[in-house]
## 1
Amino acid sequence: MRKLLKFYSLPLLSAFLMGTSYIPFPPWALFFCYVPLWVFALKQKKLKPLLIGGFLCQFVATLIGFNWVAYTIREFGFFPWPLAVLGLLGFAGFTNLHMPIALLFWFITQKQINKIKSNENLSRLTLLLLPLYFALCMEYYPMIFEWNFGYTWFYAKWPAAHTAQIWGFKFLNTLTLFFNLFFLFFYLKLASKQHKKVDRLLSLLRLNIKDSSTKGHFANISAALPSLLWLIGTWTLLFTGLNFYGHYLKTKWPDPDKTAHVLLVQPNIENLATAYKKSKKDPRPLALSQLIKETKKYFNNESKPPPDFILWPEGAYPYRIQHDGRKARESFAQRQARKWKSPIVVSTIGENPKGTTNSIFVFNKKGGLVQSPYDKTLLLAFGEYLPGEKWLPIDKWLSYYGRSFQRGTGENKVTQLNGINLGFQICYEGLFDFFTRDLSRKKAQILVNVTNDSWYGSWQQPWQHLYMTLARSIEVRRPLIRGTNTGLSAFISAKGKIDKISTLNKNTSWIQEIPYYSEEKQSTFSLWGYYINQYFLWCLFTLCLGYFFLCKIRTEKNA
């Protein structure tokens, strides 16, 4: 075991650097976390240890960065801790397999490159392909929820995050990978000879390090100093330039010309299934009482004007609402809308002739449906539907409420209320850039995200989910209000200013002032920037492929 740990120490080091650089950790190793793994790859002559190293890296990094999955399995499925931990291990085993897959493609490619020994630039091409393959595989590998290191730029409050209005956060993740390439070059400039493959690479990079003595080591550093200064200077210039450009984009974006006022309610209601398991009593009356009590705090002062609408988040309203298209069966929410003379946006379970849905209902101040409810389109696997549920006894596994929802069609995502176009996201949907881009192109003026993160505990996930959702606002330059049951509720302006973040596991409510635009204005990302990351990666891959074949043809002619 000691030998194995020593052999795979570099991939494990990368895993630690990656896992501790993602939200909510500070991004301390963001720009060199891949370097140990890539150095390990350069040393391998055989495919098997390379794939094992890549697998171990993604496995351990996932355990560090997403260990909340075990809590979720226990909280959601009521499984004992040993099974919950096994579930986490299973999740870590496949969720980031894009890493060993990228190393597989790179290994096959560099084997072909090594056949052409007369061109030293091809060895530099070998290094360039490392971040390129990692970015491509991360772009297309299917994930239960999409994460990337671009969000870390936003969490770190670097102005460069505002360049996402041009090319999105996926491209910032790609830049992160290529910034790691600078530090790989930096390492190779200083590395001593320890492996034949690295020896050859360093030789081709004109770093003939032969003297292992202190004197020789310092001599080599001195000889490499101009190159090291060039690498550091270029990296610093690019990073600084991106931050200045992001700050410029933020200040250049115009100020909104209209304002809406929303009563955001965070009732902090315990999961109904968990409450039922504890007491064996129907927890819904108490949950509804808690929701109404928190909302009434605003209406106790009769001098206050009614808000443009009240926002009740996912998991807060405990009863199903039966409906048939534009007609809803009389519900308590409608009666409260009439009583308070305020529209209410309610996120709850809908029930129609086709089945149950995770839906958003919008009632006007007279209690009528503004339009057909929006049914959640992107359902969460294992949370809102169980793969293979037709052949499994799901009713015996999940208590109190079934989790199998009908999938929405994606229609009616934009709803007009009091002259404002609202674009809805239900929880998980806020993680997908294409989904919010579609809302923007459908002329949504305010993005409304409703979430119930009470299944995930108070460590890591609430902060990860928060910033991954708020990032959508920067990409499409729309204000976004996020209402949650237990936190973290928040608001971010179209210019990327986070106005308020609520406290976790605490009931609260407040009037949120939301500046928005009366006229449509689309960001570059909304128009065509969504494709920049894909175009960049495939164009670079095509250039690399073309250069390889050109060198191969020249070598064959010279031979």
## 2
Amino acid sequence: MRKIVIGFAVVWLGALAGVIWAQDLNWDDLSSGNHNAQVILVNPNDSKIIFAGMPGSILKSEDGGNSWRTVLSIRSAARNINALTMNPSNHNVVYAAADNGLYRSNNSGGRWDRIFRGRNNLENRCLAVLNTPLALFAGTSAGLFISRDNGRSWDKENKIIGNTAVLNLDYCHNQNSVIYLAAASGIFKSSDYGKNWERIFLSHPGEDNQNEFDGEEADIPEESSDIRFVKAGINNANLVYFSCAKGVYRSLDQGRSWDKLSEHGLLNRDVKMLCLSGSLQIFALSQSGVFIYEDGRWREVSFGLSAGKLNYFTLDTMDNIYVAAEGGIFKAKQDSQAVFIRQGLIQEYIKDEPKIKEVQEAAIKYAEVGPEKISQWRKKAAKKALLPQVSVGLDRNTTDLWHWEGGSTTKTDDDILRRGRDNLDWDVSLSWDLSNLIWDDAQTSIDVRSKLMVELRDDILDQVNKLYFERLRIKSELNNLAIEDRNKRFDKQLKLEELTASLDALTSGYYSQQLRKLSPKKQS
């Protein structure tokens, strides 16, 4: 058992070392004075060609973000650019989903035409666009519209999606293409390019712990939904992810069943959108950071990014990260994430912390699940056969009658038959069952209890290990934060206090007591 615990701690320590030794990504500011970026699109064939959506305009760069020019200006009162995408077979064809309709450029942004507008403001507000070989899809605040003639005519999907806000669309680029759609009412899929739709996850706005397929169809506005984004696997039609206000979910069977990914490392489980790298690593964007999912936890990769509210992000073919944010447009190169080793760096973080073994022992002691408890039970059960079974018997005899003959005729009560005193019989017997020297039935019960205790102890140690090393990670992340990034620093410090409280709950306050002893100056 001890080997398992030590091995587990080594694994977590190694994971911590990977985090501490990983150099921060270097974020380059590509904004050139342009702020409040809403979306960003990188040409898969040429990463120097970048499109960025700003309120009321679309910018284009042909030199990797060194300079920008405006290629589309929107003079409507509805000015937001909500999504940008390219035709997968012709990257000169660019689509822009805006608050006043869907735009298309056939010459890489040289000229734009509005190819879709709705009958009212909700239908006009285009939130998502998807171009497939057989159909073009426009997701709006009032449902899904499909064109099968390259945008000349549009039909609304009224069967299952209805007037629900469509948040984004994605599909797997292979022969068995499955289109996935994230709507305010849930996650949908289509295996026939939008002719028929099936809901594979149901959203219950405002309610937790409900995702069953019950209830009637309802037109749910975008603002009241907890669904955020759906992402299809790359060349794997069975793989699909979606994010929501409660975290990130994954399905390996086209949405028939879902598993929730761990929330460890996420400061805010409300994930706005997802990206998949070429190596199928999943990236997540929250309002305040970019995260990558590795070894069952999320790791933030945006410590050096001070950009305010983050709105959108994407990856190029080299897995470089591009972020559209309140502060502008930013890029981080993955090849800058060099790994290096600094001797004694881990010790620097744990020198003011109690040893992990001590914390484990405190948790075991508090829960009374130490291995010596079972050993004592076995020893006492073995000695049980040496002690006899003691039986004490007590009997009361009331059948004897006595007669006194006084010989006098003047005294009262002479010549009367009386009952005498009760007789009490008692006995003591001792007996031994010497067969218990060889085997005692109590051992079977102890075996069952031992198994349950080992399972409970493993669960407790598992919690302690995760909380302990997660706390060290947060300390290292706090150390890497810029001083001016107050909001993120507050979130990290709050998470640190939460982990400390959880360790105290498992050790009856031992953890905080040791912290005060090891660093009295810092605690005062």
